[in-house]
Amino acid sequence: MSVERQQFIYICSDAVGETAEAVVMATIRQFDAHQVKIKRVSHIKNEDEVKAVVEEAARSGGFVAFTLVQPELREMMKEESIRLSVRAVDIMGPMMQAFIDTFNDSPKRKPGLLHEMDDAYFRRVEAIEFAVKCDDGRDSNLLMQANIVLIGVSRTSKTPLSIFLAHKGYKVGNFPLVPEVKPPQQLLQLPGNRVVGLTMDADQLLKIRTERLRAVGLPYGAKYATLARISEELEYAHAIMKRIGCPVIDVTDKAIEETAGVILGYL
To answer: What pTM, to 2 d.p., does this model score?
Structure first.
């Protein structure tokens, strides 16, 4: 039996490299590419380090995605990639050049500006801490302080959405809707435009919950993962959402980023 050969994408940055990694990850998701691994090389300071990355990419048969704001490092990357016949993708260069050409401005050429510890950074940290405290209805009293409150039945992506939006600086709470648990007054008192309901196709939810049972070692066929129970929960949840008067998003087959974009559109 043949063994699938591992392939590598090298992320090269004079800062952290998260920008390039986000682009690379989004690209990988478009392919059935389980054999592709990412290797991130951060905080590059000199041309020798650039050479080393390109040489390793040449040996492994991979390619390089880079975010280098220093002109001499970018130039070395281009020279080495041509010399060794390695494809190198400049993630930020074309965008910076478009900015220069269009607005007649000059870049600061300072690595890591995205992660400077400014007010926005501390807002994100505070928002992430808030999302953790408010996850799954842990502290109903904090819901009044939230920019957004996500509601829905179990396994409709409330927690990952909360964390994703928190990384954008929004304080997000989430509350699970269960027929046996009366929603708190704090939730019912919120204006509808600060609450977003999440729903999903019942059959898709059944698949997800069944997988969840298997993952935690619970027996197949538990009430939590039956179509009758799911339909009951969804009907109850829709009634609560209608009572609150909030927008409702069907998250069936939607990526977290896509749903977050819809939510931010409401805001």
So the answer is: 0.63
CA 131 from centroid of its chain's CA atoms = 15
Q: 140-199: per-residue pLDDT in tens?
A: 999 999 999 999 999 999 999 999 999 889 999 999 999 999 999 999 999 999 999 999
Long-range contacts of 1-8 (CB under 8 A, 24+ apart): 4/34, 4/35, 5/35, 6/35, 6/36, 6/37, 7/33, 7/35, 7/36, 7/37, 7/60, 7/61, 7/62, 8/36, 8/37, 8/38, 8/39, 8/57, 8/60, 8/61, 8/62
Pairing outcome for strands 88-90 and 248-250: unpaired
Distance CA 240, CA 248 (A): 11
In terms of Cα–Cα distance, which of 239, 237, 218, 262 is closest to 154?
Answer: 237
Token reading at 152:
């829905």
